[in-house]
Input
Amino acid sequence: AQTVTQSQPEMSVQEAETVTLSCTYDTSENNYYLFWYKQPPSRQMILVIRQEAYKQQNATENRFSVNFQKAAKSFSLKISDSQLGDTAMYFCAFTKTDSWGKLQFGAGTQVVVTP
Amino acid sequence: DTGVSQNPRHKITKRGQNVTFRCDPISEHNRLYWYRQTLGQGPEFLTYFQNEAQLEKSRLLSDRFSAERPKGSFSTLEIQRTEQGDSAMYLCASSGDSRNTEAFFGQGTRLTVV
Output
C-alpha cells in the first residue's frame, strides 16, 4: 500500500515571496506519477503540476516547480512570487501507472498568502 | 462542456435515510472516480469506473454504499441507512485513459447527516 505524508498543516507567506511545501511518500512501485493539486475555498480541486517517476528532470509550470528526489521518496512544491490567489489547500497525490487516475492523497497543507 | 458537474451541492438528511448523489463527467472521459473528503483531510478513494464497468472498490465502501454508471456516462452514488459518520464531502472526478490526461474534479456534494 502507498502512503503520502504532508507534514506541514499550514504555511503562511507574503505576497511575492517563495514558499516550499513538503511531501514524502512510501511505495514499492517503480512506475508511478506524483501530483500537486490545489483546492481553493470554493472546493474544486485543480491540478497544479505533475511528475512522472521515470523522468529525472523536475517539472515546472510557470511559478510552480517541484523538487523530486526519487531515492528519498520526496516531492516538494515550490511556489515562487506568491500571489493572493494562491491561498488554498495544497494536496500531494500519488498514482501507480497500472491503476492510472486512482489517486492517493496526503492530508494537505493550507497555504495562506498575506499582502 | 462545462466540466464535471455534481448534484446536489449540499444535502442534509436524517440518520437512517437513503441519499443519492449524481455526477456528470466531462463527456469524452471514460474514467470516473468517487472520493470522500472529511474536514481537514485529503480525499480518500472510494471507487472508479471504466465506461460502465466498476473496476475497483475501496474497503471504505461498505455494503451501504453503491455506485453505478449505467451507460458509461453519468454516475450515481447511493448511501443507504445513513450514519453520522457518513457526513463528508463526496467528490467526483473524470479522466481519459491516457496517462497524458489529468483528472478533473467536480465541486463535490457536501452531505450532513443529523
Summary: The two ends of chain A are 41 Å apart (CA to CA). The interface with chain B takes residues 4, 6, 33, 42-47, 50, 91, 93, 97, 99-108 of chain A (CB under 8 Å). The mean pLDDT of chain A is 94. Residues 66 and 77 of chain A are 5 Å apart (CA to CA).
